[in-house]
């Protein structure tokens, strides 16, 4: 019996890997390969290579950020400190304004009780 339906399209995994390595989306890759995204998502090898490529891209980006921080880039040092060391910008607050408001309310209350 002959097979029925469309012939299976081949997926060029080298293109998938190259595009995933620069954070291309699955839709962008599908478009480049002239395939439907659902077709790609049904392919286990595509999913494996795509996920590996995205993780490779993240590692590359992290490596570049770390290099910039080591070169003395203050912005990158601050950002990495916030992301990985739990550092944050501290905003100091005081209660001076609150104390003044309470004193004024106490004065108003005392003046009202005299009436």
Question: How is the topology of this model organized?
Answer:
Layout: H1 13-20, H2 26-33, H3 37-41, H4 44-70, H5 74-84, H6 96-114
Helix pairs in contact: 1-4, 4-5
Structural notes for this entry:
- α1 packs parallel to α4 and α4 (44-70) crosses α5.
- The protein is mostly helical and 115 residues long.
- The protein has a domain at 13-89.
- The model has no long low-confidence stretch (mean pLDDT 88).
- The protein has helices spanning 13-20, 26-33, 37-41, 44-70, 74-84, 96-114.
- It is built from six helices and no strands.
**Helix fraction bin:** 55-70%
Strand residue percentage? under 5%
N/C terminus separation: 106 Å
Unreliable sequence segments: none
* Major beta-sheet overview: none
Radius of gyration: 30 Å
- What class, by secondary structure content? mainly alpha
Let me know the average pLDDT: 88
Q: How large is the count of helical segments? A: 6
The topology string of helices and strands comes to HHHHHH
Q: Number of DSSP strands?
A: 0
Question: What best-fitting shape do the alpha-carbon axes yield?
Answer: elongated
Give structural attributes:
115 residues, mainly alpha
């Amino acid at each position: 019996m002959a097979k029925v339906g469309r012939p299976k399209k081949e997926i060029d995994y080298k293109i998938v890997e190259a595009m995933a390595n620069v954070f291309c989306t699955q839709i962008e890759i599908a478009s480049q390969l002239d395939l439907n995204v659902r077709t790609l998502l049904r392919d286990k090898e595509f999913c494996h290579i795509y996920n590996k490529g995205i993780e490779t891209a993240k590692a590359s980006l992290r490596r570049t950020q770390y290099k910039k921080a080591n070169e003395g880039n203050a912005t990158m040092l601050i950002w990495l400190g916030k992301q990985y060391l739990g550092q944050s910008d501290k905003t100091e607050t005081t209660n001076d304004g609150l104390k003044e408001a309470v004193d004024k309310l106490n004065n108003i209350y005392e003046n009202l009780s005299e009436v």
